[in-house]
Amino acid sequence: MNIRRSTLEDAEAMLTFLASFWEAGCDTVTQMSSLPTVEQELEWIATRDGDARVLFVAEQEDRIVGMIEGTIPQSQEYAHGCEFGMSVLAPFRGQGIGRELILRLLDWAESKQLWRVELSVFSNNAPAIKLYTSMGFQEDGRRENAVRLRDGGLCDLVQMFKYTATAIDHLEVRG
Question: What pTM, to 2 d.p., does this model score?
Fold first, then answer.
């Protein structure tokens, strides 16, 4: 497995990756109303330049099997943290790919001297919640019945966070 920053050359492979989620009708990730065009995907990747947004992909067998995107908010009040979204194709889950993607994102957050890394996860995604918890993420709140599933059912949106080493060092000095 290879984890690396995404490049513009990944646009078509990313569309194939996204189409796999589209076709599976996965109830643990947000579904798009339609797949982007190649041009839209190129534009999206180009904005993830590593400054305030970053996109890492996991490759295995010459295809993208996972991705993680981190974004630092533009608002000054929240710019000490970032939020991320991650997905791994079903046949490749449980192999440590998600953990490696998160570790890469945490390294990026440290390089930006961020204090807080945040995510939102559907409450019906027990494997993801278990992974995040095992990596030191804590539940920070819950939006009850915030997600309508394809079958019409509802689930909570769980907010989770982790302090970076930069924050812990600062908070210990400050504390």
Answer: 0.90
